[in-house]
Amino acid sequence: MSTTIKKFHDIPLSVLDLSPVNEGSNPGQSLKNSTDLAQHVEKWGFNRYWLAEHHNMPGIASSATSLLIGHIAGSTNHMRVGSGGIMLPNHATLVIAEQFGTLETLYPGRIDLGLGRAPGSDQATAYALRRTLNMGPEDFPLQLEELQGYFAGTERVHAVPGEGLTIPIWLLGSSDFSAQLSAQKGLPFSFASHFSPDYTIPALHLYRSRFQPSDMLKKPYAMLGVNVIAADTDEDAHYLATSQQQQTLNIRSGRPAKLQPPIKNIDEAWSEMERAVVEKSLETPATIVGSPETVKQGLERFLAETEADEFIINSQIFDHKARLRSYEIVGALME
């Protein structure tokens, strides 16, 4: 850790959006909601808007991530837009180079390419995406090198658009693998604290201690995922948070579903063992639920513990207006 203590106003805040599909709704409405949210958070001062790649998930509408990034970038003016992330084992690296080269050409200086190495799906879905399982997470460093080669113009095949463009590549992770690789490559690193809180400090230490400067980045830059459910009162926020708790329970139980409406008594929805599993995934300090003051204190505490360079905030809230209000509350903290 550095000797300089960061203040909350020193770091930018960003948005991680999974385009949640609500129970009783459909992906079309989810994508409209994502567009509306992006336009609002841009006005509220958020730094970047990332969309996540997931497949075969009834509650997530951002599967065609590159397409949605283009739509969001075209619906906003200056905010950075990118992937949080593209699961590189699911794709031919040339295709990703061309897609993001196209995005950067259309929206110069606004596109981020966040990469993950996990398939983000089950075996059947992975096969449907790739038609072969010969390339896996263990091949990620080779894929990354190849992708960088397309942008640098050092591969036999040329990515057009893409070649010669400078697109920030981020590595995403929930363990030490991407922390180590991003340090070795001199790339910015985004850690999934919002669902892997226990590994946050070890991953940050590994990344910072082994960082090698590169042409892209001279010193380490770490962005951390944070779950934030904000409302005007602690009571209202905890009620809204039951949607995310139900979603986490469904995913951990192997039965992914649409985002469920909040419920008054979450204890009626799970066993003691299930509750422990969910609370372990959504434990503080990387999950913050409450009023504006509670959220402010939580983010300040997490910043003091991690000295993060940026927070990227995930808010799985069923009601779109309540979700907007949550981000509005967080945005006001930057003023």
UniProtKB/TrEMBL annotation:
Could you tell me which Pfam families the record lists for this protein? Answer: Bac_luciferase (PF00296)
The record's listing under InterPro entries reads: Bact_Lucif_Oxidored, CmoO-like, Luciferase-like_dom, Luciferase-like_sf
As one GO molecular function, the record gives: oxidoreductase activity, acting on paired donors, with incorporation or reduction of molecular oxygen
Q: Which family does it belong to?
A: To bacterial alkanal monooxygenase alpha and beta chains.
The protein in question is named Luciferase-like domain-containing protein
Task: List the GO cellular component terms.
Answer: cytosol
Record's Gene3D superfamilies? Luciferase-like domain
Q: Where is the Luciferase-like domain?
A: 15-306
Domain of life according to the entry: Bacteria
